[in-house]
């Protein structure tokens, strides 16, 4: 299923810079599963409030029904939250037969693109927008599985290196929403500054104005023990996570400076 794509519908179709648009599962799923935070938007039931709500949340794409599924397969988005939060209550109540309509945004920032003029400045980035219907996870096995997936998406192997399984109070206070994705798209910008021809002909200006890319990535610092820590030195799985995440982020930011093939 390596060529599987989300359907192109008006709400998800990229119109500006269309060549930057991607609809395949692999691209979209990899963006979402590698960001630390997704932003979730949904309409509120208050007729007096015209504004949709937006929340930063932790989420992860996976399939409970097909746990060996890869990023090329159809996946659901699992969101973690407190049971009494507005989103979790609305997800439980649902807004129609399919669930609560939700929009999710995820973005990686890979570089600052500095051109000759401010109007030509840009970012190198990878972004994804997903649309789907949210329903609460009620089965204990699926809930525990999703909690483990989300925990390990924050720091690899963290779940097995904590006090698990969660106790009754923790299970009761935690709600997991499953979002069935119905449409999605990604938009990616990579490469160098693209200046207008007339500016490129102005040699004096080009000698005066520096152009190029400032590669950018999330950098994880040296882990610091908390005041109540009794476990000794930083465990190897945490060190390994920090090292790998920093290496991958730096590598991806530098790869983003390469002009994509046309």
From TrEMBL:
Any Pfam family: Pyridox_ox_2
Top-level taxon of origin: Eukaryota
PANTHER family reported in the protein's UniProt record: 5-NITROIMIDAZOLE ANTIBIOTICS RESISTANCE PROTEIN, NIMA-FAMILY-RELATED PROTEIN-RELATED, FLAVIN-NUCLEOTIDE-BINDING PROTEIN
Protein name, entry field: FMN-binding split barrel
Organism this protein belongs to: Glarea lozoyensis (strain ATCC 20868 / MF5171)
């Amino acid at each position: 299923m390596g060529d599987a794509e989300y359907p192109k519908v008006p709400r998800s179709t990229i119109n500006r810079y269309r060549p930057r648009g991607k609809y395949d599962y692999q691209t979209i799923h990899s963006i979402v599963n590698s960001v630390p935070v997704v932003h979730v938007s949904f309409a509120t039931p208050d007729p007096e409030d015209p504004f949709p709500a937006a929340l930063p949340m932790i989420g992860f794409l996976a399939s409970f029904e097909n746990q060996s599924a890869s990023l090329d397969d159809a996946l659901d988005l699992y969101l973690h939250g407190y049971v009494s939060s507005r989103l979790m209550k609305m997800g439980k109540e649902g807004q129609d037969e399919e669930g609560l309509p939700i929009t999710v945004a995820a973005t990686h920032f890979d570089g600052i693109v500095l051109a000759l003029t401010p109007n030509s400045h840009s970012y190198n980035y990878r972004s994804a927008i997903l649309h789907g219907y949210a329903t609460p996870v009620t089965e204990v096995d699926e809930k525990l599985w999703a909690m483990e997936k989300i925990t390990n998406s924050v720091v690899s192997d963290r779940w097995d290196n904590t006090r698990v399984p969660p106790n009754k109070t923790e299970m009761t206070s935690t709600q997991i929403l499953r979002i069935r994705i119905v449409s999605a798209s990604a938009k990616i910008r990579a490469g160098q500054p693209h200046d207008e021809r007339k500016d490129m002909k102005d040699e004096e200006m080009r000698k005066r104005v520096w152009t190029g890319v400032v590669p950018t990535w999330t950098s994880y610092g040296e882990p610091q023990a908390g005041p109540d820590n009794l476990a000794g030195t930083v465990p190897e799985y945490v060190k390994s996570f920090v090292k790998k995440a920093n290496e991958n982020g730096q590598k991806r930011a530098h790869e983003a400076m390469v002009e994509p093939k046309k």
